[in-house]
Amino acid sequence: xxxxPSKYYESLFFNKRILILLIIALLCIIVIVRIGTYHPEIxxxxxxxxxxxxxxxxxxxxxxxxxxxxxxxxxVIASSPDQSPVPIASVTKIMxxxxxxxxxxxxxxxxxxxxxxxxxxxSDYNEDFAQGGSVLEIEAGEKLSERQLxxxxxxxxxxxxxxxxxxxxxxxxxxxVAEMNxxxxxxxxxxxxYADTSGLNPASISNAVDQIKIAQVxxxxxxxxxxxxxxxxTFPVEGILYNANRMLGEHGIVGIKTGTTxxxxxxxxxxxxxxxxxxxxxxxxVVLGQSPTYLPLHSALNANAKILDEVLSEFKLYTxxxxxxxxxxxxxxxxxxxxxxxxxxxxxxxxxGMTGSLSIHLMKTQLPIAPGTNMATLRIQSxxxxxxxxxxxxxxxxxxxxxxxxxxNGY
Length: 411
Description:
The protein has 411 residues and is an alpha+beta fold. The protein has helices spanning 6-36, 93-103, 119-130, 146-154, 159-170, 173-186, 208-218, 222-228, 296-311, 402-407, and strands at 43-46, 50-52, 66-71, 75-79, 86-87, 114-116, 143-145, 205-206, 232-235, 239-242, 255-261, 265-274, 281-290, 316-320, 328-331, 338-341, 346-350, 355-362, 374-382, 385-393.
């Protein structure tokens, strides 16, 4: 049997010792990584993902034409059964104004760029006047600011100014009309087609539901809101002209646009402020196709105001009762969990039967989290309306212990 020299055994022992030290060092590194560098995760979830407010939204629509009611945040809430595309007359100009302000934004108090009226603008005026349209009298060389042009478009409902603005924004009325239709498509206005910028053409058609959609977008613009709430405006050649919206200032109405032709009958899109807080909210009501034996616009104005009066009281604050286990739960893998409650009453603005989605968003993750800490936000969304409330944990949330960190599964 062969014998190995003593130096061989010494070398072998030395290598084993190094190996053991390496293993110990590796274990120490693993422990340090698992205990010292692990960042535990807290998850939050709602007790219920949806809510439905009690009651049922009630509204009586006119027996003729078509109507719809909604708000700038909630969108369409209710509509009459028949929502076929129909001529909308000068209600068309809501989209015209929206695109002008989108292309050339104004801030409150600004006049914007100045346009000099040309021979072409005068020709448009003469043509629209001859057709019996509503017009703003102008002269070649007259200077009008963007703000004045928008006032002429929305108050006396000047058809010729719609053409002037379209040519300024897009180079031609045809190009502008194409943009109107593209924008309508992007807003989900599936029953709308624009054939001109003023609505004098009966081929400019829409329905009441689609007009709620454009109204809720354009009413977010403070300059638009200022203009449609004006009783009158003064122009260099024409002088003082009054808003065609004779219901302005009554029933809480602060806009938006009237329209009437033989093809369209009487049409009116209105807005009235509701709610509280710093952000303005508006009830939006659309009435189209009012065609009595006389005064169709008068009929549309009255029918619209009647709807506003009926639904105004249905918008109010609702207090949500928290579930027994809280609005949500904060959980984690090491089971230091807590129910989440709001430190204040959860009062949301809404209407009977409104549905909303609930979600919770974590704000504080640094452990430990003492009871009563604002650690999350409850977000309630209905349509474009988002209302938020702080949530606090009822139990202390502790960091995971050393043993859990060491023996947890995975990394």
